[in-house]
Sequence to fold (632 residues):
Amino acid sequence: MAAVSLRELLVLGTSSAVPTRHRNHNGYLLRWDGEGFLFDPGEGTQRQMLLAGVSAHDLTWICVTHLHGDHSLGLPGVIQRVARDGVPHPIAVAYPATGEEYYRRLRHATSFLDTAVVTEHPLTGPRPSLPAGPLTLTARPLSHSIDTYGYRLDEPGGRRMLPDRLGALGVHGPLVGRLQREGVVTTPAGVTVTLDECSEPRPGQSFAFVMDTRLCDNAYALAEGADLLVIESTFLSAEAELAERYGHLTAAQAGHVAARAGAGHLVLTHVSERYDAADEPRFLAEAATTYPGPITLAHDLQHIPFPRPPRPTATT
Amino acid sequence: MAAVSLRELLVLGTSSAVPTRHRNHNGYLLRWDGEGFLFDPGEGTQRQMLLAGVSAHDLTWICVTHLHGDHSLGLPGVIQRVARDGVPHPIAVAYPATGEEYYRRLRHATSFLDTAVVTEHPLTGPRPSLPAGPLTLTARPLSHSIDTYGYRLDEPGGRRMLPDRLGALGVHGPLVGRLQREGVVTTPAGVTVTLDECSEPRPGQSFAFVMDTRLCDNAYALAEGADLLVIESTFLSAEAELAERYGHLTAAQAGHVAARAGAGHLVLTHVSERYDAADEPRFLAEAATTYPGPITLAHDLQHIPFPRPPRPTATT
Fold:
């Protein structure tokens, strides 16, 4: 009954301010059925998309947390590629309104045949919210060195049809669709059946993207109950003082956000160039001291499946 | 007697407008003793520098041929890296003056702590020329879809000391340096010796960088007698009509420029994404139909030694 669904996080880049041999600047594509949300395109995102098998046609939204280069210098290349490849649909771009001048420079950074259709959403206020395809995109200010918004995507709740109940009440074929649309049908046997009798509530899923920030209330609010939480963990606990000073999180703090918010799958990323592969187990170990659930330390070009929704309740 | 010399071309990226799996956007560093000339930093140049072992401290000049993204979108990242790494010396940047507005956007593309010392050289006129360390940088307009300058670097000629003649005339130790500086010395034996007697002319070397352009007089003028010529060859001859329409060269045309200009080592690059590795021998073969000298089809992260100057003449 559900449309064919492809929901995954495609990791394009995972470094913080300075790229490394194995980590390109930031970049993440959330594929959500027909939508493609590109978060924080750092420099080189255009090529990382190629390496990851992502087309400019796959994009529908670009969400920029803030106008530091490692989160936005890839924007011109992505938009120019949208134009060059003749993407016919509009691309919505969200970014902090106080970064408008930088956004304009990036949008028109160099000479190109500008056929891209871009709709801009400069963000202001404590909790701007926008419809984004079938989802709702909500942003909240974070605590960094310049204005920064974290993002959250929420799927509306719905109802999951229960085939056994439909069968028992004699609802078959086209009647099922009509029941979903209209909420009540009469069967050929003359029985009136309501949607509630044949379905159960299906909570919507949610995704949160939190960077760059030190610990703050909005980091928790964005992550609240998220099925998948992508959150920066620039530092390890030994550098907690640096993290606080520059407006970043440690892995243990990221874990704490996930735990207190009741998040599902925790994805750590935005790793300082001071660490190398040998340090990676420490990120996982430190986050695990505060968060008991599943943790991934993101790598470039990694595919992370979106967690499956909870199983239907028994219907027999 | 000569200072320790490191002269090489470090290839950072070799694609044309669209990067491929194996070719990043344009970028080339010419190391010339203590100078570092970065040509056409396309997107991702900052990371390509890292992969190639180039530090921001190695740069002294950035030369941008034109303000298309594949030749300039890496500029913000490079400048921001210069600032972040605390490079103390000024970086000179040359670009077509008509691209000033785009240059300004790239220079101040996003928020960063801007401690970079940048001296700008917007180019106008038919043959702007600038001192560039020990070299002379000359630019000439090319024939592309927007204003584009090709570049050329010339080392001044000098004199090569001839050890056998110095010995025969009794010039030893500190007297040699004085002869080089002052042009004439008197030996302990009372003999007056002039520089001309103990040396021979040493022609300066030269480097040319020609892209993007269709065939035009200035392509030949830039390449005239260059020891190393880096020139775009976006297309093969089968696509000559496309090359002409979009202001590009074929490999055979690039070879023709090298041949008529009497260039030394020919380096082809800026390859269209329509070609793959299997097509590469065709670039070399087509260029070889017009140019009989050494030809390299550039690859990312390749080191190309600068051709050695001609051997001294026999002195016995």
